[in-house]
UniProtKB/TrEMBL annotation:
EC assignment: 4.2.3.3
Species of provenance: Flavobacterium ranwuense
Binding site for substrate: H8, K12, T36, G37, T38, T39, S55, G56, H88
UniProt entry tagged with the keyword Lyase: yes
Known catalytic reactions: dihydroxyacetone phosphate = methylglyoxal + phosphate
Enzyme class: lyase
UniProt record similarity statement: Belongs to the methylglyoxal synthase family.
Record protein name field: Methylglyoxal synthase
Record key words, sorted: Lyase
Record-linked SUPFAM superfamilies: Methylglyoxal synthase-like (SSF52335)
Matches recorded under Gene3D superfamilies: Methylglyoxal synthase-like domain
Pfam families listed in its UniProt record: MGS
């Protein structure tokens, strides 16, 4: 199962902490992580194997959206910063829309991401 991980700058540390907390399930052979550039680098620095796309503002969100549309990415964790505006807001909205169109679970905060991972763990 391919899971995309994305985080705005102020949420990157929270996402890495979440990944570390769930390292056992996220490092199972059946889980493949993809990420936007900087988020992927931070995850790699914590010991995760990640396929990196471009950074979000340079098209990484669009690359992940394409993988969702192609049926490759089955879940998206996008730790968003709800208190700031972002210059690539259109790309973010497009990714959210594509997840909705293709019925792909999208977690925009840790609580929702944890529920999704707990569901995966119960299936194992």
């Amino acid at each position: 199962m391919e899971i995309a991980i994305i985080a705005h700058d102020v949420k990157k540390a929270d996402l890495v902490q979440f990944l570390n907390k769930n390292k056992v399930i996220l490092q199972e052979e059946k889980i493949k992580l993809i990420a936007t550039g900087t988020t992927g680098s931070k995850a790699e620095n914590s010991g995760f194997k990640v396929k990196k796309m471009l950074s979000g503002p340079l098209g990484g969100d669009a690359q992940i959206a394409a993988r969702v549309a192609e049926g490759k990415t089955k879940m998206v964790f996008f730790f968003k910063d709800p208190l700031s505006s972002h210059p690539h807001e259109a790309d973010i909205n497009m990714l959210i829309r594509v997840c909705d169109v293709h019925n792909v679970p999208l977690a925009t905060n840790e609580a929702t991401a944890q529920l999704l991972l707990d569901a995966i763990a119960q299936q194992s």
